[in-house]
Amino acid sequence: MPGRRRSREGGNTGLVSASPVGFTHDQLPLLPREFSPRAITSSARRAGSLLVDGRQDTRTAASPPYTTDHRIDPVRDLNGVGLVYFAAYFSIIDAAVLAYWRHLGRSDEEFLRRLVIDQKLCYFGNADTGTTVTLTVRAYVPSGGVGDEVLDISAHDRADGRLLAVCAIRLLREAVEEILHLPPGEVSLDETLQELGADSVDEVEIIAQAFDLLGLTDSLPAHERSRPLHLLVDDLSGRSR
Fold first, then answer.
1. Does a structural domain hold residue 33?
2. Rounded to 5, what percent of the chain is helix, strand, coil?
3. What CATH number is attached to the domain comprising 123?
């Protein structure tokens, strides 16, 4: 497969496709269109977001956009040839989500216990060490209904505005807040559903939605629903692996 090389000495901002000397791929079968990442990549680049699934009109902003900066660190973010390692984008984005989490008044412990149902990341460019990356976090919830919280994150080079990456994260947490009509950030994972005001019908609805989002088909006995939320999250997360 084609790799990347620098178009100018010492810079990461102008990478171009480059294949190893002597590498050929004519003998390989074409990738079926349905498995190609090109369509979603092109849409995400144009929109500056991975939330281009046709459901934009069904979502409502949960809070104003939150912006934070990250300076590319030569120790943590670069690989052996001096490029931003693709996996570093995940930690860079997680750091932005943590900053947003704290901005909402949520604790670090709750951040560690969050249940990520799905995460997609698409990156478009690289950056030099010392570059300041501006990350914007937007949070959405379903309009007029119960559902998962979706985080939409974009990363731009602050100096020239280049789009470096976009990410979409689905979190289970919002279901409890929606069903129990609690303000965002009011759910403590150390409490039980009953302590948060849930009756037996609420419990069934919350657990059913969690099972549906995680693709689980078994059931949870009634006595197990009385455990603190962090134990329920651990249980459901373990079942989904």
1. no
2. 30, 25, 45
3. 3.10.129.10
Instruction: Tell me if 88 sits within 8 A of 77, measured CB to CB.
Output: yes
Q: Which of 124, 121, 119, 133 is nearest to 77 (CA)?
A: 133
The number of folded domains in the chain is 1
Query: Within a domain: residue 82?
Result: yes
Give the distance, in angstroms, between the CA of residue 149 and the centroid of all CA atoms in the same chain: 10
Residue 29 resides in a domain:
no
What φ, ψ does residue 139 adopt, rounded to 5°? -115, 140
Q: Identify the DSSP state of 156.
A: E
Whether residue 13 lies inside any domain: the answer is: no
With a cut of 80, say whether residue 32 has pLDDT above it: yes
Residue 56 vs residue 2, higher pLDDT: 56
60 or 54, which is more confident: 60
**Mean per-residue pLDDT for 70-98?**
93
Domain of residue 84: give its range: 48-240
Residues 156 and 162 sit within 8 Å (Cβ to Cβ): yes
User: 149 and 83 in contact (C-beta within 8 Å)?
Assistant: no
- Measure the CA–CA gap between 186 and 196, rounded to whole angstroms: 9
Average pLDDT over residues 163-172: 90
pLDDT in tens, 131-150: 999 999 999 887 755 557 89
